[in-house]
Amino acid sequence: MNQLNNIKKFTNVVMDTGNLELIKKYLPKDVTTNPSLVYKEMTSYIYQEFIADAVSYANKQGGDKKTRLQNANDKLYVNVSKEILKLISGRVSIEIDIRLSFDYLALIERAKKIIFLCNQYGIEKNRVLIKLAATWEGIKAAEILEKSGINCNLTLIFSLIQARACAEAQVHLISPFIGRVCDWYFKNKKMQHKSLLYLDPGIKLAYKIYNFYKQRNYNTIIMGASFRNLKQIYALIGYDAITVAPIFFEQLSCMQKSNTILPHILPSLNKFKKLSESKFRWQYNYNAMAIEKLSEGIRLFFNDQKKIDNIFLKYL
């Protein structure tokens, strides 16, 4: 047995990609996407077909250029997701326009529109996770969406307070960004060696969230994301799920099974009183890393979304 199949016995290993050929090759159960991953594939033949179809759809829907651009983007992500779902048995995460991350009502409206489009084109909503940045507005939007039967993946989690707010909102799944946490501490010279796992603040955050959830019996799935090396992946064997780049699928599938150490869950504890917005913002404000990395993550996704927009604007 190779190491990839060994890990799969304990943890759902999700693929983080928009590359259809790699999905065909490794056949993960679930797939996550984002604007950066979609943009990376835009020059491929199949994506050119997706783009042409999205442009045709948007122009038929009509409206001003802004409306047509929005419709083209939505149809592109639905096209990509539909093709991915032909290859996997599980779910695909579709990211809502990152520019809406601080607009609670717009997030709800756009998410419902995406689900409606999915339904129109033969995708059942139970095969889709709506992906939102874990701002306060994103978390509150997810709370409403979950109540209407639309499951969400709250991404760009960099702090326990974000994770707690998501659990209290009964969000389906969260994605703590392990590697980016480590990046921040290394860049700011708050750690000297990325290779020393016991010093890795990303792994420490992952364990903290895991125990916080399991001790209090929250049902929200925790999916570790943004891995920088195999050691970080090994540290999260036994986690609910991890989403990893195709390169790690390749490396793990070529390695022999090794010993497995599962996370240790601490004794049960009672849940806290639900967070208010002011308490969330106050506690979040004290985490410089989380503030910087969430803002940076939104900007990075926005930059790649603009590149996708520019491709569409040539034809709309």
Describe this structure in words.
This protein is an alpha/beta fold. It has one domain: TIM Barrel (Alpha-Beta Barrel). Helix content is 53%, strand content 11%. It contains 14 helices and eight strands. The protein has an eight-stranded parallel beta barrel, surrounded by seven helices. The longest helix is centred in the last third of the chain and has 26 residues, at 288-313. The protein is globular and about 55 Å long. The protein starts with a helix and ends with a helix. The mean pLDDT is 94. Belongs to the transaldolase family. Type 1 subfamily. It comes from Wigglesworthia glossinidia endosymbiont of Glossina morsitans morsitans (Yale colony). One of its GO terms (cellular component) is cytosol. This is transaldolase.
In short:
With 316 residues, the chain is of the alpha/beta class. It is 53% helix and 11% strand. One of its GO terms (biological process) is pentose-phosphate shunt.
